[in-house]
Amino acid sequence: MKVMYLRNESNLKNTFYLLDQHLQVYGIQYEMKITPHQKKESKKSKTRVYTTVRKKDIDAKDHEIVKSINNPIDDNPLKTLPRRFDEHLKYLRNDGSKVICIACKEGGIIIPKNQIKKHLILSSHLDSTKLESFSYMFFCEICDLKFYDEMTWDMHFEKIPEKHKNTAASRRENICEHECLTCKVILYGDALSLRRHRNSNTRRIERSRGSFLSEETKKYFSSKTIINENGQQLLDDVKEVLDEQECILECCRDLEDALSGYFRDCEAHPFGSRISGLGNSDSDLDVFIDIGDMYDGVKKQSEKNQKKIINIAMELFKNKEEFYRITSRPSARTPIIRLKHKPTELDCDISFRHGLSVENTKFLKFCFQLQPISQTLILVIKKWSHLCVLHENITTYAMAMLTIFYLQTEKYLLSVDTVKTLNPTESRVIDGWDTITYTAPIEEVRQHIAMYKGGDIVILLKGFFKYYSDFNYKAHVICPLLGTTVLKSQFTEDLTGSLLPEEMKSYINKINKEENPEYFRSLSEFCIQDPFDLSHNLTKACSPTFVEKFKHLCTLTYEMLEKL
């Protein structure tokens, strides 16, 4: 009731403008009595309020929103396709028992009814029909989650999310998929969701925001001397962090002590930027905690088991005064607990799934040992991403893989598969993925690469920014495993993996043998394949707008460096 009175205050109406709609969703009718004082205030501000509302109404009319599917239970599968596929219908024939695409093969190709959408987004189909791929953003308003490709969007609904199940019945029956033709957004929600969308210009602002190099960025890269000095300073800062291993050991000991009463054999394995040599004093500490035979990813990997472990660990940490600000993300791809360690003031991300991230860190350290300039180059590019405000959408690890891949194309680093070949000692298999046991002497491995002469990184920076300003993000996957690109179509044309190279046999085995395999998100706008977990696209959440921005900033930075 107090909230409703607040809503009626003239100076707070904009803050509570959705409250009426919330009440309507749950079937509550409420009429606020207006006091004489409020009537007086209303008359005073009538013109001002009217102007504000008119502006919002005009903005709302800019959004052309329609239902994606008019009749989702029609017997004809072509009539249950979302309207964004309307241009494809002229190439499809339904004879009752099967659907045929007449564009993709002479005489037509038969498509299983549950695979129609997957067929229509294949690059081969788009090439045959000369139709363009979609550039929609997908938003589940119920879960507050964004997606950037059709396949990932469909996967979201295959297993009904908990938030969908917990939605009030009065609201649930009105929820469906909508398309905002103005913003190119697919939105799953109800009338309240649509009103929120109409009152938000986020999408249009994102599209219209220009990309440019800040003055701070220009200053940081203003001369070859300054660039190399900045690189050396970053390297010195990293070495200071690496020298503070006692803090990390103390934190890991306290983590183990907190859990050992329940998980007797637990062992903390720190990883991430503080361990690899890419962190600074503000970096979080990532820790995988093996609570007993978990490192290889064989035991307790299910979502249910991971949530149980997270809940138990949360309670154990809360009982220890060494930890505070304890939160969790149990539904993440790798569930984590976030906390702060009071004695060292380290922010920690704690996971319990398996040790593959620890192996990723070992690979980065190996690259820095093999080709020392690679560490400095990644540090400078990481700094560039922060200056350009790209770090909010792409992780340090993904930026490191971009850099390593570029160096692989220049023969300054080896492909991950070649490193495996040069280290033939049997390695651990973690969650079905092959890792590397680094037994070959580093000097022997260096015989297979071109060592970078001198400490000047400007030439490498120019090469990096030129490479990614010209890169074909729509067609190619960045693949550090091979050291070359892979066509996205090799993942999508045949979901059994028959078109993929032999080096990806661990991925091919998993998608063909597991009951609910995780497919590589090759339809995402930006694709970087993790070199070990081959089903993981490190940049699957990057939007088309972000890719445009990244590519444009690479171009601007290359042009700036060319003038030095």
UniProtKB/TrEMBL annotation:
Q: Which cofactor does it need?
A: Mn(2+); Mg(2+)
| InterPro entries per record | MTPAP-like_central, NT_sf, PAP_assoc
**Matching Gene3D superfamilies, A to Z?**
1.10.1410.10, Beta Polymerase, domain 2
Q: Mind telling me what this protein is named?
A: Uncharacterized protein
Entry keyword set = Magnesium, Metal-binding, Transferase
Q: Where is the PAP-associated domain?
A: 459-536
| GO-annotated molecular function | metal ion binding; poly(A) RNA polymerase activity; RNA uridylyltransferase activity
Q: Where is the Poly(A) RNA polymerase mitochondrial-like central palm domain?
A: 230-366
Q: Which GO terms describe its biological process?
A: RNA 3'-end processing
Highest rank taxon of the organism: Eukaryota
